[in-house]
Amino acid sequence: MTPATPATPATPAVPGTGPLSRLVALVHTLLVVEALLLLAASPGAAALLLLGADASNLPLVAVCLLPVGPALSAALYALHRRGRDLADLHPARAYWRGYRLNTCAVLRLWAPLSAWLAVIAFTLTHFALTGLPGWYALLLAGIGGASLLWGAHALVLASLFAFRTRDTARLAAHFLRHGRATLAAASPLVLAFGLAVLFGEALPALLAAPLLLSLLHGGRPVITETAKDFTA
Q1: CB contact burial 133-147 (16+ within 10 A = b; e otherwise)
Q2: In 3D, which of 223, 195, 221 has the Cα closest to residue 208?
Q3: Are 209 and 75 a contacting pair, CB within 8 Å?
Q4: In angstroms, how far is the first alpha carbon of the chain from the final one?
Q5: How far apart are CA 113 and CA 107, in angstroms?
Q6: What is the torsional sign of CA 139, 141, 144, 148?
Q7: Which residues contact residue 196 at a Cβ distance below 8 angstroms, ignoring those fewer than 6 apart?
Q8: Is the pLDDT of residue 17 over 90?
Q9: 127 and 120 Cβ atoms separated by less than 8 Å
Q10: How many other CB atoms are found less than 10 A from the CB of residue 102?
Q11: 98 touches 76 (CB < 8 A)
């Protein structure tokens, strides 16, 4: 009679690594990152509240939005390095590390982009005074949209890689020509714009962390190609 083969003992589940734990970890990370993002951007937000809703204030709006760039960059950094189990959650530490590392590099891209978009917005809001043909307004709007998409790529690259400013700008322009990556970057921007139009500017701000996570998810091809082809 053949002796029975002893049953292999089941491998015990590691606490904190199941689907529910990963979901809780994700929600925790999003909440912490969202709170820190709002805190880091609060100086500019407070200044915006003091400005009237007048198109002549657009240059000042660009100045008020300067703290938003580093805040978004730090959020991308923290979300990219988020822990996936409850035993390894340090989103606040990752956020402030990203803020410290990326602020200067991001501002060198964010400041001129904000100024450029302010010029476009100011021109469009005063377009009737320019005497230019109507197609020029459409051209300006298209340039503004392309600039936003370039900015989305540049923000992701500057948040996750330590390139020189001009190299980041060139890479962002390079990926702007990649239709799939650019379409993925456009999705959270369009969603944020739609939410702002329908429900006010506060809602996209409160959902900034999930929107940035979507931007990261859509930017995986950009991140992968950059790490493979443009880093040592």
Answers
A1: eeeeeeebeeebeee
A2: 195
A3: yes
A4: 62
A5: 9
A6: negative
A7: 203, 204
A8: no
A9: no
A10: 23
A11: yes
pTM here is: 0.88
The domain locations on the chain are 19-229
Match 């979507």 to its residue by tokens. 214
For residue 175, give both structure tokens: 């990926």
DSSP the chain: -PPPPPPPPPPPPPTT-SHHHHHHHHHHHHHHHHHHHHHHHHHHHHHHHHS-S-GGGHHHHHHHTTTHHHHHHHHHHHHHT--SSTTS--HHHHHHHHHHHHHHHHHHHHHHHHHHHHHHHHHHHTGGGTT--HHHHHHHHHHHHHHHHHHHHHHHHHHH----HHHHHHHHHHHHT-HHHHHHHHHHHHHHHHHHHHH-THHHHHTHHHHHHHHHHHTHHHHHHHHHHS--
**Contact indicator for 182, 163 with CB cutoff of 8 Å:** no
Tell me if 152 sits within 8 A of 185, measured CB to CB.
yes
The pLDDT tens digits for 19-69 are 777 888 889 999 999 999 999 999 988 888 887 667 778 888 889 999 999
